[in-house]
Design goal:
Blueprint: H1 2-10, E1 46-54, E2 64-74, E3 108-120, E4 123-137, E5 143-157, E6 178-191, E7 195-202, E8 208-209, E9 220-221, E10 225-232, E11 234-235, E12 240-250, E13 257-266, E14 270-277, E15 281-288, E16 294-303, E17 314-323
Antiparallel strand pairs: 1-2, 1-17, 2-3, 3-4, 4-5, 5-6, 6-7, 7-10, 8-9, 10-12, 11-12, 12-13, 13-14, 14-15, 15-16, 16-17
């Protein structure tokens, strides 16, 4: 039994490839806020995202992730006012010539909240975090943001889905199928009109994960995840942009994982893209900025690892809501 149990204990913790404990996202460029709290309040509206990811379709017990996130700026010095105000008279500061006329955002605060539910086999992990960031203009066209996230992680074990050789195995205590731990993350984000670069670390506390009161069975532990991300927007014409981006993920002792994406946007109305995750998958992506109220994007991962013999790839869909979008922008202006 112990081998079975340890397998799933690692899964707390290997719900994704490369022994990740936290979910991975193909569309990270669409919501970097989930990985880096420094993006809290980066846009001049209330940014809401709802996402769903089904990993390795067709494989029983494969990871399944759902999330909701919300963040917004606070303070009256951000592009003519806070996200709860009304537009001021005059030209729209976020119109089509935004990049040409870009000026670094005034110093301001950002706050947010996110909740993620990740399931894998008999395990379910729920994370809820509050986030805060401070954005500072380093020059007329460059901003630096520093952020922090604090919350709780709850790991639940469905004992009915675990096969035990010994029904009274001390590694699992009957009735003790939940583990609740505090969580802490931090990050930095440098951005301008056509570039972004950031680094963040999650699970900084490194807490133990256990379903028993006996310390000798406390073999699970939160592992720090480090993310480094960068991208640049190239204008291929008046209405076409290309944004290559890369993300490095380091989770000791697993090998470093690399995600490389390319996004082509047309008239800020819709975009197409593709990506590659080393030794894991290729992906195809598409998104639509339906209106100044919401946008929608979808991605599909073609598995290249040995799992491609038992799975049909990975689906991911994200719905974005731009609440109180005072200047009616149809796509994000400071994250892309």
């Amino acid at each position: 039994m112990k081998k079975v149990f340890l397998f799933w204990m690692l899964s707390v913790c290997i719900t994704q490839s490369y022994a990740q404990q936290l979910p991975q996202y193909t569309q990270y460029i669409f919501n970097n806020y989930l990985l880096n709290p420094a993006l809290s309040g980066i846009e001049n509206y209330i940014d809401v995202k709802l996402g769903y990811r089904k990993q390795w379709q067709g494989l029983e017990g494969a990871p399944e992730t759902s999330y909701i996130s919300l963040n917004m700026p606070i303070g009256k010095n951000f592009t003519g006012g806070d996200a709860n105000g009304f537009p001021e008279k005059g030209d729209n500061p976020n119109n089509r010539s935004f990049v040409r006329d870009y000026m670094a955002a005034e110093p301001h605060h950002g706050i947010g909240i996110n909740a993620v539910v990740d399931k894998a086999g008999p395990l379910q992990r729920t994370d809820v975090n509050l986030t805060y960031a401070y954005h500072l203009g380093l020059s007329s066209r460059v901003n630096l943001a520093a952020g922090i996230a604090a919350g709780v992680s709850r790991v639940s074990l469905d004992i009915s889905k675990v096969s035990l050789e010994n029904k009274s195995d001390p590694a699992i205590v009957s009735g003790q199928d939940n583990d609740l731990q505090p969580n802490l993350s931090a990050g930095l984000w440098l951005y301008g009109p056509a570039f972004f670069a950031g680094v963040s670390a999650q699970q900084l506390l490194g807490r133990q994960i256990s379903f028993t009161n006996d310390n000798k069975y406390d073999e699970g532990k939160q592992v720090m995840h480090v993310f480094a991300t960068a991208g640049y927007k190239f204008f291929l014409g008046e209405n076409i942009t290309a944004t290559p981006s890369v993300m490095f993920k380091y989770i000791s002792p697993a090998p470093t994982s690399v995600d490389m994406n390319l996004k082509l946007a047309f008239q800020d109305k819709f975009w197409l893209g593709g990506g590659y995750r080393n030794k894991d998958s290729f992906s195809a992506m598409a998104g639509f900025n339906v209106s100044y109220l919401f946008n929608l994007s979808y991605s599909y991962d073609f598995t290249t690892s040995q799992l491609n013999t038992v799975s049909n790839g990975t689906h991911e869909i994200v719905l974005g809501l731009l609440l109180n979008n005072r200047y009616r922008v149809t796509c994000p202006q400071r994250q892309f």
